[in-house]
Design brief:
about 400 residues, alpha/beta, five-stranded mixed sheet, 15 helices, globular
Length: about 400
């Protein structure tokens, strides 16, 4: 029988610490495992040997700093996880193994706000189809991460914002999808998942304090402090789109006036170009025209960047992140939008908050949220469940 503080209990805890480090990073050398877990090199070496004998990890030759090393990753057949991203206008699903290899991915148009039930039906069908396409048995799915474009109540798990997702009020996505799929489901908003995606796979790798700013149908921020997403007690941390920039400005869907969202979200930005570029212009076209030198599109993108920067400056004064990652279609404009963001941040944030700040474009593009949903499962699943699937060889 294991007792707290016993050698057996300590050994089990060390096994789980190593599995967690590898699970979150995808692959690490033994030296990196030792640094991230605080365990000695000898202890890590022994644990890796045991995990390899169990069939939990794979060890492959690599190099680090010009020297030979061994890369440790979870076995590809140790289990699979699923990410589901409900955007305002799309549904995207990705299936990955515990070694961070994406095995299948697909996206299709969907009016998410119309009906929660219709969205769940489509997600259930797509998840089943993609899991079957990987050839994995349904029992290998260890969890599903699910993102929605609105705030989730941290205690009840329900969506309660009538302004954000009117067709989803009172829905409990985790409970609904868990009952449909028969596996644990973890839910978060799209900005938080974008932050997780960039943290694990993209521009924020190795960064412990950052903000991911998603600019799309709305404007939201995913906040990471100390390497973990900060959600707040009610689950609404990061609603940067509802910072007031002009109390006499346009009425926002939240009921206030002059929110950042009314100056930066796609639904407010595109109408600025309707008279000159037609009513059907898209943000993708605006970015492409701006990159080609179109003066109107360049001006709109620059103005939007400055507004985003004003909101980011307030965030930096409060949280002092070391990195801000810009996501959403407007991020594809690169320096045309990033330079104005930095200009406003430098103007309105206190110098000490700007001194070590980097503002960059996200690396994952439209995939940030669905990969973040995969990362959410990887961060929430218990390491004991991974160990339980393998036993030491006799």
């Amino acid at each position: 029988m294991e007792t707290p503080g016993s050698q057996t209990s300590l050994h089990r805890a060390n096994l789980e610490r190593v599995v967690r480090a590898v699970r979150m990073a995808g692959s690490l050398t033994q030296a990196e495992i030792a640094r991230s877990t605080g365990l000695s090199a000898a202890t890590v070496s022994n644990i890796v040997r045991e995990l390899k004998e169990r069939g939990t990890v794979e060890v492959t030759p690599t190099s680090a700093g010009g020297r030979r090393a061994r890369s440790i990753s979870l076995r590809g057949d140790a289990g699979i996880v699923v990410g589901v991203d409900f955007g305002h206008t799309h549904l995207r699903v990705a299936v990955a193994n515990l070694a961070h290899d994406v095995l299948a991915e697909e996206s299709e148009p969907l009016d998410v706000g119309a009906s929660a039930g219709a969205g769940f039906d489509r997600a259930e069908e797509m998840v089943g189809r993609l899991v079957r396409a990987t050839g994995a048995a349904p029992g290998k799915v260890v969890g599903v991460g699910l993102g929605v474009p609105g705030p989730i109540d941290g205690e009840s798990g329900t969506i309660g914002s009538t302004a954000m997702l009117p067709g989803w009020v009172g829905a409990n996505p985790a409970k609904e999808m868990s009952e449909r799929l028969g596996v644990p489901v973890h839910v978060d908003n799209d900005a938080n998942l974008g932050a997780l995606g960039e943290l694990v796979w993209g521009a924020a790798r190795g960064v412990s304090d950052l903000a991911y700013i998603k600019v799309a149908g709305g404007v939201g921020a995913g906040l990471v402090t100390g390497g973990r997403v900060y959600r707040g007690p009610g689950g609404t941390a990061g609603e940067i789109g509802h910072i007031t920039l002009d109390e006499s400005g346009p009425v926002c869907r939240c009921g206030n006036r002059g929110c950042l969202e009314t100056f930066a979200a796609v639904r407010y930005v595109l109408p600025l170009l309707h008279s000159s570029h037609g009513p059907d212009i898209t943000m993708e076209q605006v970015v492409r025209l701006a990159q080609g030198g179109d003066p109107g599109c360049r001006r709109v993108i620059a103005d939007t960047g400055r507004h985003i920067g004003s909101g980011v400056a307030m965030l930096c004064n409060l949280l002092n992140p070391s990195l801000v990652v810009l996501g959403g279609e407007i991020a594809d404009a690169g320096e045309l939008v990033l330079a104005p963001v930095r200009e406003s941040v430098s103007r309105y944030a206190i110098p000490s908050a700007v001194q070590r700040l980097s503002v960059v474009r996200g690396e994952l593009g439209a995939r940030a949220e669905v990969l973040g949903a995969v990362a959410l499962v990887l961060s929430e699943m218990g390491d004991s469940s991974v160990l339980a699937q393998s036993v030491p060889k006799s």
